[in-house]
Specification:
The complex is a heterodimer of chains A (about 375) and B (about 90). With about 375 residues, chain A is α/β, with parallel strands linked by helices. Chain A has a single domain (about 10-365), classed as Alpha-Beta Barrel (TIM Barrel), CATH 3.20.20. Helices cover about 35% and strands about 15% of the residues of chain A. Chain A contains 14 helices and nine strands. In chain A, helix 6 links the parallel strand 5 and strand 6. In chain A, helix 1 (about 40-55) runs parallel beside helix 2 (about 75-80), helix 2 (about 75-80) packs parallel to helix 3 (about 100-105) and helix 6 (about 165-175) packs parallel to helix 9 (about 200-220). Chain B has helices at about 40-45, 50-65, 65-85; strands at about 10, 15-20, 25-30, 30-35, 85-90. In chain B, strand 2 and strand 3 form a beta hairpin. The chains are: A alpha/beta (about 375), B alpha+beta (about 90). Chains A and B meet through strand 5 of A and strand 2 and strand 3 of B.
């Protein structure tokens, strides 16, 4: 930001743990997963919630890994309620049962976001390494609805399940779901490692886009459909996180404070860590958070671009991953010299058919 | 489709909250937020148990404004909120 006063973030995303019963090939967690022994304590998470509310953050997303793998989740949700934060649980649903859900509802949980790897057990197991996941998620959905909690279904889309889109939306409609996210995998962390196996073709994408447009028209006012495309096929980059360090603050399991969950790939930046740093010091004072905030850091042609305050230059992690430089154009942008290369790469990989997936694991070594 | 006969209520998982740090009111929903001005907040707070038509009549009365304009404004406001998923209606 150059000439405006920096606002505090609107929301905090807590990656409570990297532990998860699923091993999704598209997981956006870092390749170097944090072991349970390095996770923050209950008291530390509560202190983070206190400071988030004090700073003016309005929402907390409990995420992971699988946040329900933390036994103290109800305590953290209750604490979020006490300090006035709107709470959202981002879960696979496979650890949910009636008793646990009742405890979370009692703690004041505002919303559940339940993720699916599609509705076909075989495909879902291929993507997540978890057996009978679809049935477990469907049971979780029924529990959440019976508890009268607000719910969003999140369908993660890859080449393997893109053809199920109509069935997914039909399923959501049949279950009177008010909000659905059709979220094409974004290629970070494990997803980036598996991109050649996961990325859909342009033909698949075009079919999905047309289908979503038709569905949106038909269910207007009843069901909101959020649709995220794989941005390799886009002409303009996404406004990643609503702009670097402008809206969101992420806390990793060990307390590392980041402007986005993938930012640790930017190893030239020194990210602060709680409790050595407060959230406020990280947000307002740290060089890492300031590095790509606003427009002052932008190279040409970004700095002269009409969209610079819409897309904020896209994604820094993607610029590094695909163009080898975190401070250059997001190669997804058609004005990037690497744009053609990226689209060609995506097209070529999308035609590779069955490519073996490297499912996420704690012992993975980068090849 | 909202009409003057519709009644609205906040959707599940939505709440109206004062943002004390930024000195404004917001509607909070799943991964979304809508800043509401004084008039929008008034409409939301007064809408309980009333149809949009009844609410418009009261507001037109109170603010000495043309009824047709108020009806149009309230319908537009609630339609936008509804399409964004913040409201349900009967």
């Amino acid at each position: 930001m150059t000439d405006t006063i920096l606002s505090p973030p609107l929301a905090v995303l807590l990656e409570l743990t990297h532990r998860c019963p699923l091993r999704c090939a598209y997981c956006s967690n870092p390749l170097a997963l944090t072991p349970a022994s390095a996770e923050l304590s209950t008291a530390e998470w509560c202190a983070i919630l206190d400071e988030a509310a004090r700073m003016g953050m309005l929402q907390v997303h409990f995420s992971g890994g699988e946040p329900m793998a933390r036994a103290d989740l109800p305590e953290l949700v209750a604490h979020a309620s006490r300090v006035g934060l709107y709470s959202n649980l981002i879960t696979s649903g496979v650890l949910l049962d009636e008793r646990k859900l009742a405890v979370l509802a009692e703690a004041g949980l505002n919303h559940v976001q339940l993720s699916f790897q599609g509705l076909d057990e075989t495909v879902a197991e291929t993507l997540s390494g978890f057996r009978n996941g679809v049935a477990k998620k469907q049971a979780a959905l029924a529990l959440v609805q019976a508890a009268d909690l607000a719910l969003t279904l999140n369908f993660v889309i890859t080449r393997q399940n893109a053809h199920e889109l109509d069935a997914m939306l039909r399923y959501a409609e049949e279950h009177c779901i008010a909000r659905v996210e059709i979220a094409n995998t974004q290629y970070y962390g494990w997803g980036l490692q598996n991109r050649a196996a996961l990325i859909p073709s342009e033909a698949q994408l075009d079919a999905m886009t047309a289908l979503v447009a038709g569905w949106r028209e038909r269910v207007k006012g009843r069901m909101v459909i959020d649709y995220v495309i794989p941005d390799y096929y886009a002409r303009r980059p996404k406004a990643c996180m609503g702009g670097w360090a402008q809206r969101f603050l992420n806390v990793m399991p060990d307390g590392t404070l980041l402007p986005c969950h993938a930012a640790q790939t930017l190893t030239h930046l020194d990210f602060p860590r709680f409790p050595a740093s407060t959230l406020s010091a990280a947000w307002f004072d740290s060089p890492a958070f300031a590095a790509y905030r606003g427009t002052a850091w932008m190279p040409e042609p970004c700095s002269g671009c009409d969209n610079k305050e819409k897309d904020w230059g896209g994604c820094r992690c993607q610029a590094l991953a695909l163009a080898g430089d975190a401070s250059t154009l997001d190669p997804v942008c058609e004005r990037s010299p690497q744009h053609e290369h990226v689209v060609t790469l995506a097209r070529r990989e999308a035609q590779l058919g069955d490519v073996p997936l490297h499912l996420r694991r704690f012992s993975y070594k980068v090849p | 489709m909202l009409t003057l006969e519709s009644t609205v209520r906040l959707a599940p998982g939505t709440r109206l909250q004062h943002d004390t740090v930024r000195q404004r009111w917001v509607l909070l929903g799943p991964e979304r937020m809508l800043i509401v001005d004084d008039m929008a907040r008034l409409c939301l707070e007064r809408s309980a148990g009333l149809s949009i038509g009844q609410l418009s009549e009261r507001l037109a009365d109170e603010f000495d404004a043309p009824l047709a304009t108020v009806q149009h404004d309230v319908l537009t406001l609630f339609t936008t909120m509804s399409e964004k998923g913040f409201l349900r209606h009967d």
